[in-house]
Amino acid sequence: MKGLLVLGLLGVAMVPAAFAFGLLEGVDPLAMIAFSGSLVILGLAAAGLGYLFPFVALGAAALALLGVGLIPAAMAMGNLAGVDPAAIIGFSVGLGLLGGAVAGLGLMIIPISLGIISANLLGLAIAPATEALSQIQGVDTALILGFGASIAAIGVAVAGLGVMLPAIAMGVIGMTVMAGALPIFGLALRTLPDIDLISFAAGTAALGLAGMTLVPGAIGFTMMAGALTLFAASLLLLVPLMPVLDKLGSIGLFGMGEAEAAPAEGGGGANNEQIIQKLDELISVIQSGGKVVMDGKEVGRVIQLAAGPIGS
Q1: What are the pLDDT digits (tens) for 299-309?
Q2: Complete DSSP assignment for the chain
Q3: What is the pTM assigned to this prediction?
C-alpha cells in the first residue's frame, strides 16, 4: 500500500517535471549542467547573505545615518573652499586645547566656586576697610602702631585667660564655697572675746600645719590602740584560766615551786617518770573539783593594765 501511495505521488510530481523537460527541448546539456552549478552557487550565496543578514541590516542602517550626517558635513566642506589648510589645522588644534581647558575647569569646579565665594566676601570686606582707612588720614603713624601693639597684647592676655580657664574655674568654685563659709566663720568670731585677728590667723595656720604633721602620728596611734585592744581581749580570755595556771605552777609543771629545788637525778627515764607523776597529780586536781577563789583587786588591776596605755 505504501508503494502504491509513493507511485501515486511520484506520478503527480512527474506531470510538471515532464512539462519542464518539454520546455528544455533543444537546450545544450552542458548549458543545463552549468545552469545547475550556478544555481548551487547562487543558493550558497543566498544562504550566506541570509546568515549575514543582521550584520548587513546594521551596516545598511549605519550607512543611512552616515549619509544623513554627511549632508551638513559636505555643505560645511563646500564653505571651506579657498580656506588655507593650515588655518583649518590650527582651528582643530585650538578647539582641542579649548576642550581640554574646559574639561580642566570642570574638574576644578569646587575650588573655583570656593574662590568665587572668597572673592565676593573679600569684596564685601574691602568697602568697610577702605572706609576705615579713610578715617585715619592725618593720624600719627606711631599712634596706629601703638594701637596695633595694644590689640596684640590684649589678644595674648585673652588667650592666656583661655589657657588658664580650668584653674580660674576652680578658683571661682573655691571662692564661692569660701563665701558660703565666711558668714558662719564671722558668727564664730563674734562669739570670741576681743582678740588679735592677725595672731589668731597665724595660730590657725600653724595649727593647720601641725594637724597635717600629726596625720601619720594619728594613724600610728590608731594602729597601736587596735593592737592594745586585741591584747586586752586576749588577757580577758586568760583571766578565767589563771587558777589553772596557778595550779600548774604549784605542781612545778612550768619549773616553778618545789620542782625548782629538786635536783635532776638519773637519766632521761627519771625525767619522764617525774613528768608522768606531775600529769597524774594535775588530772587528780582537776577531777577533785572545788571552788576557785579570785582576788577582785588583782583581777581589776590586771584588766586596768591591759586596757590602759603601756607604762601607766
Answers
A1: 677 666 666 65
A2: -HHHHHHHHHHHHHHHHHHHHHHTTT--HHHHHHHHHHHHHHHHHHHHHHHTHHHHHHHHHHHHHHHHHHHHHHHHHHHTTT--HHHHHHHHHHHHHHHHHHHHHHHTHHHHHHHHHHHHHHHHHHHHHHHHHHHTTT--HHHHHHHHHHHHHHHHHHHHHHHTHHHHHHHHHHHHHHHHHHHHHHHHHHHS-S--HHHHHHHHHHHHHHHHHHHHHHHHHHHHHHHHHHHHHHHHHHGGGHHHHHHHHHTTTTS-THHHHSPP-SSHHHHHHHHHHHHHHHHHHHHH--PPP--HHHHHHHHHHHHSPTT-
A3: 0.23
